[in-house]
Write a structure and sequence with these properties.
The chain is mostly beta strands and 458 residues long. The protein folds into 3 domains: 133 residues, Immunoglobulin-like (Sandwich), CATH 2.60.40; 168 residues, Sandwich (Immunoglobulin-like); 93 residues, Cupredoxins -  blue copper proteins (Immunoglobulin-like, Sandwich), CATH 2.60.40. Helices cover 9% and strands 33% of the residues. It contains 6 helices and 25 strands. A 6-stranded mixed sheet has the order 10-9-12-17-14-15, with no helix packed on it. It has a 5-stranded mixed sheet with strand order 11-19-18-13-16. β1 and β2 form a beta hairpin. It is globular. The two termini are 22 Å apart. The N terminus is likely disordered. Bound molecules: 2-acetamido-2-deoxy-beta-D-glucopyranose (4 copies). One 2-acetamido-2-deoxy-beta-D-glucopyranose (NAG) binds next to β3. Keywords: Glycoprotein, Signal. Belongs to the multicopper oxidase family. InterPro entries: Cu-oxidase-like_N, Cu-oxidase_2nd, Cu-oxidase_C, Cu-oxidase_fam, Cupredoxin, CuRO_1_AAO-like.
Amino acid sequence: MESPFLPLSCILISSCLLLTTVHAGSGYVYYDWTVSLSIRSPLGVPKQVIVINDMFPGPLLNATTNDVVSVNVRNHLPEPLLITWNGVQMRRNSWQDGVRGTNCPIQPGQNWTYSFQLKDQIGSFFYFPSLLLQKAGGGYGAIRVNNRKGIPIPFPQPAEDIDLLVGDWYNVHHRDLRQMLDQGRHLPRPDGILINGHGNFGPTVFLWRSGLTYRLRISNVGIRTSLNFRIQDHALLLVETEGSYTVKKYYSSLDIHVGQSYSVLVRAKNLTHGHSFYIFVSSRFTKYELLGLGVVHYPDSRMPPSGPIPTRPAPFDFGFSINQARSIKWDLDVGAARMNPQGSYHYGAINVSRTLILENGLVVGSNNRIRYTVNGVSFLHPDTPLKLADRFEMFDELKIVVPSFPDAPQTAETMKLQRMGASVVDVKWRDFYHLVFQNPLPNVQTWHLDGYNFFVVG
Ligand SMILES: *[C@@H]1O[C@H](CO)[C@@H](O)[C@H](O)[C@H]1NC(C)=O
Ligand SMILES: *[C@@H]1O[C@H](CO)[C@@H](O)[C@H](O)[C@H]1NC(C)=O
Ligand SMILES: *[C@@H]1O[C@H](CO)[C@@H](O)[C@H](O)[C@H]1NC(C)=O
Ligand SMILES: *[C@@H]1O[C@H](CO)[C@@H](O)[C@H](O)[C@H]1NC(C)=O
């Protein structure tokens, strides 16, 4: 990754950035967001939810390839705030990425304007607050990056695009969940599943018209639960995932892990016989079952949804999930952000510079407190964002940086000396890295790979 180019203060950046990153033909999108707490009861239990402009989920960030996006974020929360743009390739703007390693948090009562270009991107993504487990309180929303004029989408224009943000939900305040983790305890099981901020007691109702085709942009915005998504009596035609168009393929249900986004086309029924239909979202790989419901209504629907629940994979059928992931292929013949087909860059011919094997783990310390680790190191945040520290060559002063972060898992013995710290991997511009993830723990783990281009190869 490129060496960062950081002015002294995080506040100064946005204006110079606008001058340097705008390319001819790119548009501007401007948003003004106030982030605050509001009492909502998605599962029937009142909770302080993080809302943006009084909305939960937050407003749609709707833009087009190469647009420059500015988002003025006003923090009316009682705690510091950063918003991260999941799936957006920050490239030269990587310090706008809204994670603690790159950005100074926006302090309570302050505002800061993110500014980045959606260069060479299309697709469905979402944003969320990255600090202090605030994601468990809400504050998330959908991102759409539309095709530029002149580059056709590789399917007929749908009648409507619909964002579906699905995820597990806790009735407990995110502050109390955070406290559990800080005390070295595990998170409890979630209380339910939300679809667009609504639980089963007042499910989200979508009104569809017969014969039309809808594009659903579905993201798992939850904390920890993999989900299976299906719609009674309607097939899902997968067309895009996280910024790449896929070979079109029908699925009766889709596994969506935390952080993943998919676009599917759904053709509304010609004849409903007065029925309406359930959308089901159920937990995967859990001993308990959480179920989220939505409803599809048609103008002539007279009855609430009924009839057989569409089958779901068995809760611990890992093979289903892995085979489904393997069945998803890039469509190499169509353009996306550019005219030339997605397949014209031959990723298969890349020379890998270095392989990193990243293994998550946990250590149980004194008082039975747990800490999570990567290759034996448990991460500590330095007070200065790492990118600033790098720019000003302050790593030595930070003391807690682990510059010799190991490329492979280490035994407890070898890691004894340096068990906690801010892990840093030095990489070179234009190199390609092969990242292998290993999870020896008995539950599903999700990695947030931030700010750059990542391609799944196996
Ligand atoms: C999103 O932006 C596109 C391109 O400017 C526009 O055509 C579309 O109507 C917008 N959608 C919404 C929901 O604002
Ligand atoms: C804060 O918001 C004001 C508008 O109310 C804007 O003029 C200013 O540039 C914003 N400050 C930052 C640092 O983004
Ligand atoms: C539904 O209607 C569309 C357009 O009128 C037609 O092309 C399609 O074949 C119909 N589907 C069925 C199952 O009748
Ligand atoms: C990989 O290395 C080979 C041999 O050095 C070279 O011919 C090839 O162009 C390289 N591939 C890429 C994509 O750089």
